[in-house]
């Protein structure tokens, strides 16, 4: 007897049918829409259930989603129970260009929480608030209950985030996206001095919970990175921004370690103890880093850098579990830093 038979050869007992593969909700919604748009009369719910291979409850949920979340002109009712489109004004209803499944909505909730809870959330909140309301509505329609926004289910903890002026951020973002020159007063944290700058913004960078502006500095005739929280009184000019080739920008900003831009100065070699290696081996410190396990269980990391300040900070947080092997100037700088720190604890 063929494999497609519903009976066992020996006993004649009925075999359980292999369940039909359940279609995804997106596929059902699209199929429902096509059927309802093409139908000239109401379609019985049982007919829809049989054609889509799902339960009556599922059909009603999908019809409710079409009507409540996507705005479809659905009319339910009749005997037997049926569904149909009633399109007024001669306009045919079409599915919106973008609509989301429950999994996509949940991913969007996580993305929203990341954006709103991290540094710089203030400037983004005005734009994100309507999105939150829309997501909350879609979630309630999706689940069939009004549970509200899933507060506390996703938590984003900012680390060393600095205070950011919303008006400044909006001006910097506008100049960057509209490709216009920007003038501002800059209070450099490294020197403690202020200066007037005119720049051609290239891109905004969100790095370690803080915002930075990569730009061509017309006064210095060079690429520079500016901490947005140190920018004061920005003025968007009328002149178009100078365009820097992306490859040139990446070579200047991305080649070195961290946010401290500039040409690569050297390659650092750092060895971590077997205890720290379990964490370091999974960390991404630089796009061009190279790592290898040593025979004794330690881990060796090689990476280019242009400014030692941030690199030393990351290495020294591992304390005695990390050792800078080379270059020698970086190793000596680490030793001096540790001696100065130890002096603070001497009696």
From TrEMBL:
Taxonomic superkingdom: Bacteria
Keywords: DNA-binding
Domain WCX: 268-339
Compositionally biased residues, Basic and acidic residues: 1-10
GO molecular function: DNA binding
Annotated spans, Disordered: 1-26
Protein name: Putative DNA-binding transcriptional regulator YafY
Lineage, broadest ranks: Bacteria, Pseudomonadati, Pseudomonadota, Gammaproteobacteria, Lysobacterales
């Amino acid at each position: 007897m063929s494999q497609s038979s519903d009976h066992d050869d020996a006993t004649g007992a009925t075999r359980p049918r292999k369940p039909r593969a359940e279609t995804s909700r997106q596929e059902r919604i699209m199929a429902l829409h096509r059927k309802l748009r093409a139908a000239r009369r109401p379609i019985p719910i049982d007919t829809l259930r049989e054609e889509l291979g799902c339960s009556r409850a599922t059909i009603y949920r999908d019809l409710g989603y079409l009507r409540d979340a996507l705005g479809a002109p659905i009319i339910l009712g009749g005997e037997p129970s049926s569904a149909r489109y009633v399109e007024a004004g001669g306009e045919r209803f079409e599915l919106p260009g973008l609509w989301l499944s429950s999994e996509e909505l949940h991913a969007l909730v996580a993305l929203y929480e990341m954006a709103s809870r991290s540094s710089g959330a203030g400037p983004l909140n005005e734009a994100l608030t309507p999105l939150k309301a829309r997501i909350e509505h879609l979630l309630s329609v999706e689940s069939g209950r009004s549970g509200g926004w899933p507060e506390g289910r996703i938590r984003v903890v900012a680390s060393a985030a600095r205070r950011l002026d919303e008006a400044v951020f909006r001006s910097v973002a506008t100049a960057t996206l509209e490709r216009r020159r920007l003038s501002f007063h800059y209070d450099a944290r490294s020197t403690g001095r202020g200066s007037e700058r005119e720049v051609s913004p290239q891109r905004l960078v969100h790095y370690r919970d803080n915002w930075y502006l990569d730009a061509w500095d017309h006064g210095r005739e060079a690429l520079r990175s500016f901490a947005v929280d140190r920018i004061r009184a920005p003025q968007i000019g009328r002149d178009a921004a100078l365009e820097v080739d992306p490859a040139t920008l990446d070579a200047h900003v991305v080649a070195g370690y961290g946010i401290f831009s500039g040409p690569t100065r050297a390659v650092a070699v750092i060895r971590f103890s077997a205890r720290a290696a379990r964490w370091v081996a999974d960390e991404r410190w630089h796009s061009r880093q190279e790592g290898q396990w040593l025979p004794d269980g330690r881990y060796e990391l090689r990476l280019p850098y242009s400014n030692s300040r941030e690199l030393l900070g990351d290495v020294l947080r591992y304390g005695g579990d990390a050792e800078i092997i080379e270059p020698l100037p970086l190793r000596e700088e680490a030793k001096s830093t540790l001696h100065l720190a130890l002096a603070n604890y001497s009696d």
